[in-house]
Each structure stands twice: as structure tokens, then as C-alpha cells.
Design goal:
Layout lengths: L1 H9 L1 E8 L5 H16 L3 E4 L2 E6 L2 H14 L5 E8 H5 L3 E3 L2 E3 L12
Antiparallel strand pairs: 1-3, 1-4, 2-3, 5-6
Keywords: Antiviral defense, Endonuclease, Hydrolase, Magnesium, Metal-binding, Nuclease
Subunit structure: Homodimer, forms a heterotetramer with a Cas1 homodimer.
GO molecular function, one term: endonuclease activity
Length: 112
């Protein structure tokens, strides 16, 4: 029980939220490139323009945050949020008024 609780506070989720301009063909191309690059880094779509990535520690999360920062396009708004597995596990997701199942969390393998 203690290890599970400790892991829930050590394991992190990185959330990238963005609103990029898409008025011109060049802007759409840059937005698509940014999306493709964060997907290649292991992020998965949570909602439109909101992507999540599971990290086993804050140190690992910082590596991916730094990588996302290196990919930032010149224009647009990008937010990067890091939350613990415990906090992310409390999320309530709705489709209209109907509550839907929360995203699957990654199971952590423990070796003794």
C-alpha cells in the first residue's frame, strides 16, 4: 500500500495544450508538424489540441518538457502542465452530460 501511494505521487503526467494559428497553408503545416513531433515523442491525444504523456519520474518529465520546448512554433499559445499520477487519476471526463471512463493509466512494473 505504501509503495503504491508513493508511486502515485512520483509518477507524472505531462499535458501539452495548444492553440496554433491555422489561417494559411504555412501555418497549418507548422501546426501539423508540431503535432506530429509531439506524437513521435510519445504523447497521445487526450482531447483536440491536448496531448498527454506518462513519465515515471519528474526527472523524466523534465526531459520531455524540454523536448517540447525545443519544438515550439514561432506563433500560437502553448501550455505545458505537469501533474502527479494521483492528481491525474482524479480526472472526471464527460461526453455531453454522460460521464465516460477515464483514460487508461500505465501500469508500473516493480522489481524486487
Amino acid at each position: 500500500m505504501y509503495l503504491t501511494r508513493l508511486n502515485a505521487y512520483r509518477v507524472m503526467w505531462v499535458i501539452v495544450m495548444y492553440d496554433l494559428p491555422t489561417e494559411t497553408k504555412l501555418e497549418r503545416s507548422k501546426a501539423a508538424k508540431f503535432r506530429k513531433q509531439i506524437l513521435e515523442d510519445g504523447f497521445q491525444m487526450f482531447m483536440f489540441s491536448k496531448y498527454i504523456r506518462h513519465c515515471f519520474s519528474m526527472e523524466n518529465a523534465q526531459v520531455h518538457i524540454k523536448r517540447v520546448k525545443s519544438l515550439l512554433p514561432e506563433h500560437g499559445h502553448i501550455g505545458i502542465l505537469c501533474v502527479t499520477d494521483k492528481q491525474f487519476g482524479e480526472i472526471q471526463v464527460y461526453h455531453g452530460k454522460k460521464q465516460i471512463e477515464s483514460p487508461n493509466t500505465v501500469q508500473q512494473l516493480e522489481l524486487f
